[in-house]
Amino acid sequence: MLASLSSPSSTITTSPSAFSLLSSSKSISSAFPFAQRLSIPKPNAPSFSIEAKATTRQESRTARHQRIRKKVEGTPERPRLCVFRSNKHLYVQVIDDTKMHTLASASTMQKPISEEFDYSAGPTIEVAKKVGEAIAKACADKGITKVAFDRGGYPYHGRIEALAAAAREHGLQF
Question: pLDDT tens across 124-148, in order?
């Protein structure tokens, strides 16, 4: 008998009653005393897990921007002044949301602004003031005096505040 168990061609057969014991939880505890320690998942029990909500700064900014966009809308009479700030550049657009059309734009990538300032660590408050002045001048050329300010989910502080103040000083009304 020992030789038959160790041979590679030997197989173990089980009766169908052993499978029926494993399928019902009542039979398992009576047939196997250690089965009470096993956790057997219930088939219809709701399973859920609690996870911490990890959001990045970018996701938080995007959520703030979506909340702002629900309230701020650009019209032909009062277009939206939209600001985007990256680590290297600052972009501003005046947008008519009814036509989905950009009326004017200014950024730190434009030659007059990029040649005037030598900034290697990104735009500073002085650069933001220059961009605000440039967008106000571009809007004045197109006959736009009133805009709705969309800060893009960024805090109204630092570069965003300097840009808005410079645009106001040069004729835009928020």
Answer: 999 999 999 999 999 999 999 999 9
